[in-house]
Design a protein that fits this description.
- With 87 residues, the protein is mostly helical.
- It has one domain (14-82).
- It has helices at 14-22, 27-59, 64-82.
- The longest helix is centred in the middle third of the chain and has 33 residues, at 27-59.
- The chain is elongated, with a radius of gyration of 22 Å.
- The N and C termini lie far apart (58 Å).
């Protein structure tokens, strides 16, 4: 028995439509991959929120000093990851 797949109509801006057609990209597969990636991203964010809520329940809110240290560390890590690599 042939299974009929549900359909969804999607509109692209003209420039994206043109690029997809010119490059002969598989639009359906690209869209499926993008939707799956976004759904996974949202699941991970929700799981992170649940974990952080449990952590706060367990150990309490971080102090202002701890937040400041974490933000400073985060800035250093981001700056280092964005700096050009030595070859």
């Amino acid at each position: 028995m042939l299974r009929r797949m549900p359909r969804l109509q999607v509109y692209l801006p003209e420039d994206l439509y043109r690029e997809v057609k010119e490059r002969r990209l598989p639009a359906s597969e690209l869209l499926q991959g993008a939707v799956r990636a976004e759904l996974r991203r949202q699941e991970l964010l929700a799981e992170t929120d649940r974990y952080l809520a449990e952590l706060v329940d367990e150990v309490g809110e971080p102090s202002p000093a701890a937040v400041a240290r974490a933000e400073a560390l985060s800035k250093r890590v981001r700056a280092k990851s964005l700096s050009p690599k030595a070859s």
